[in-house]
Task: inverse folding
């Protein structure tokens, strides 16, 4: 009964909005060595209200959580949309985390990666089927 009384939540987020929100979060606070950290530098979960700095993975998770209004039912499926767009050429979570945690990496590099993912995500696919007129 409770399920039928719920307001329908958005369940299918757009990749571009996930990437934009993730980029905004990293621009506000970036970290290495964890998906998210508090203002005091403690490791916290990306969806924690204490999280103020994010690595790319944590930013995508929190962006998805924010855009879903805190509804976790569709978190994973939307998280992977943002992850795959951002991890292009790195392919896995561990490789993206390793790339982020490299001592030479800077916040600007991470923001640039978001920008590249946004650019790729807004271009039409070359072999995509055309909609019927």
Result:
């Amino acid at each position: 009964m409770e399920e039928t009384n719920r307001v329908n939540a958005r369940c299918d987020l757009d990749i571009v909005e996930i990437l934009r929100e993730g980029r905004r979060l990293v621009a506000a606070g970036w970290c290495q060595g964890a998906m998210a950290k508090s203002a005091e530098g403690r490791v916290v979960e990306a969806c924690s209200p204490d999280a103020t700095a994010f690595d790319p993975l944590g930013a995508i998770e929190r962006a998805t959580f924010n855009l879903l209004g805190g509804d976790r039912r569709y978190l994973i499926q939307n998280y992977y949309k943002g992850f795959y767009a951002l991890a292009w050429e790195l392919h896995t979570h561990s490789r993206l985390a390793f790339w982020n945690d490299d001592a030479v990496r800077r916040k600007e590099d991470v923001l640039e990666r978001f920008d590249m993912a946004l650019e790729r995500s807004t271009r039409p696919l070359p072999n995509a089927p055309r909609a019927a007129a």
About this structure: Strands lie at 36-38, 51-54. Residues 1-8, 128-133 have pLDDT under 50 and may be disordered. Residues 86 and 117 are 5 Å apart (CA to CA).
